[in-house]
Design goal:
alpha/beta, 2 domains
Length: 185
């Protein structure tokens, strides 16, 4: 992974200029910690002495480099559509994580719902084993259904999708879906 990242950065000539606070080894380790442990941006960012926004940018950059190299793949998109015995039920939900106010592009990640700057994380879970199958990220003001559409998840037609009201209209995308509404008090 380190060789792929360094080769990519050398090709883009990003090794010159302002020195980075974290070495490439640390950036890769941060990404692996996040994907392996599912800790919050805040907790991992504090460990490395950086802001949550910087942490998010590093994670996205490293993931993109590794995916584009095609030496590493994320198997979850294939698992959802190509499992032999098939996953019968998946649960999809989105959560918002508050972050520090960014210096640039303040409006693009401001969440009107939470009244602060946030990053959205969409989680796809196997409904039977509670195993996390996929993660996708979006900006604070993105709707849940938009993040789902942009993730391009290929889900088998027989798989039942359980979602909340943030995914209104998912039945047009995937016919075998259950939309749960809030409990009336």
């Amino acid at each position: 992974m380190l060789e792929v990242v360094i080769k990519h950065e050398e090709e883009r000539k990003l090794l010159m200029g302002r020195p980075q606070k974290l070495r490439y080894e640390e950036q890769i380790l941060m990404m692996l910690e996040y994907l392996g442990e599912y800790r919050t941006y805040y907790h991992i960012a504090v460990n490395y002495g950086i802001s949550e926004g910087t942490y998010y940018k590093i994670i996205k950059k490293i993931e993109d480099i590794l995916i584009k190299s095609k030496e590493f793949s994320l198997p979850f998109k294939w698992e959802l559509s190509n499992k032999e015995n098939g996953i019968k039920v998946i649960v999809i939900d989105t959560t918002e994580t508050p972050i520090e106010r960014p210096k640039k592009n303040k409006d693009c990640i401001y969440s009107g719902k939470k009244k602060r700057h946030t990053l959205k994380t969409q989680i796809v879970i196997n409904g039977e084993t509670l195993e996390i199958l996929a993660l996708n990220f979006g900006k604070g003001r993105s709707h849940d259904i938009r993040i789902f559409k942009e993730s391009n998840l290929r889900i088998c037609d027989q798989t039942i999708i359980n979602v909340d009201t943030g995914y209104l209209g998912i039945s047009r995308i995937h016919g075998n879906s259950l939309l749960h509404k809030k409990k009336q008090e």
